[in-house]
Amino acid sequence: MGLLDFLFGSNTKKIQDFKNRDAVILDVRTQKEYDAGAISGSKHIPVNEIDAKISEIKNWNKPVITCCASGVRSGNAAKTLSKNNIEAINGGGWKSLKKKL
Question: Which pTM does this prediction carry?
Answer without folding.
Answer: 0.89
